[in-house]
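Appendix B. Chain record.
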Amino acid sequence: MAEATPQTEQPELKRAIGPKLLLFFVVGDILGTGIYALTGNVAGKIGGALWLPFLLAFVVAFLTAFSYLELVGKYPRAAGAALYTNRAFKIHFLTFMVAFAVMCSGITSASSAALAFGRTYLRQLLVEFFDVSLRPESLVITGIAIVFIAALAVINFRGVSESVKANVVLTFIELSGLVIIIAIGAYAVAVGDGEPARLTEINVPSGSSVLLAVTSATALAFFAMVGFEDSVNMAEECRDPVRIFPRAMLVGMAIAALIYVLVGITSSLLIPSDELAKAGSGALLRVVTVGAPGFPLWVFALIGLLAVINSALINMLMASRLLYGMANEKIIPKFFGTVHPFRRTPWISIVFTTGVAVILVSTADIGRLGGTTSLLLLIVFTIVNVACLVLRREKAEHRHFRAPTWAPVLGAITCAYLAMPVLSGRPWGDYVIAGWLLLAGLVLWLINRVLHGRVEINPEKLAK
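Structure tokens predicted for this chain:
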């Protein structure tokens, strides 16, 4: 996507990804900001049964994964939700809004990572090495988060290769941090520390219910499970994707969910939920402090810092390239498709997505941004599950994975439920941010319609 090329016949992408590498990609794409930054926020909604929302979020994501597996096997192209929406409904505006929602989810996810970078992990390192203590909500910390977003833009501007090469190393690092938390929990259980009774506690706010408390926490925890859907964009670079995708995606999701549940159990065993909620995005730092007081806290702070950098970098890369793809397909103003003559990167799209991220970092908190990310993707996943059922009428000429019918049906119902106001217990602020972002997409769509009229959409080119 970084280069503007003439419309000539292109060779196929090299199929270099085997089952093990694909499995690693799925796990690495899921792990990240969600668990490192939102554990405390989820604890504040559910109480000591912190493991439960992560488990339920996995179940919802797992159902949707079946739809993605059927669709990627049937249409092994690097386009994902936009392609499936376009083929199923053939409504250009809906296809555009799905693609735009996916792009916005990348920006909100990266923005939550930027806040975790400044307000939690870098702030802890400043205390450890320079004895400098800053309030999490101070203008200095917010300024650091904005500088972080700008630094991502510079890396993004330099080119794709610099971004992708760093991803493999950072994935290993963020996995090691979660293994440390789980090891601390295992040690605590072995020596008789911790309070097992907390694992079944569910805090019910006044005027609410157990169901609402659980669904509200699950709606937020779902942010930690997103990322698996990105693997479909690697379909054209996999060896025999129809055969290896189902096992790699489902096993990868199960591994990530197991890690999350164990982290949740460890956190609740060692620390009461009100203390985790008070710690907010620093909840895992608090777990390390209490569970392993001799462990150098700066090591875990550095791991957390690198974990959120990894998440933010990949999400901003995806968002800018998807925006560029929409401009290149002439479904938003062509201006956004401008490529820098020397770096050959979509610099206008990078500037635009960076500007949106700066606004979000300056006006919203981590929990709100994480909730908005999950809301946008739950809407997209609802549409994908329905698309899977609709596209059953199209028969593929090759063998492919077929999901049991109950999976996309339950996937659509559960995703829609967690996205709905009132029923999910989701705060209205999530809908406000999502609404403004989608309104911006509507404005771009209308401007383009006035300038160019109706334009045919090729979803496959949006992802390249």
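Further analysis of this model is presented in Appendix C.
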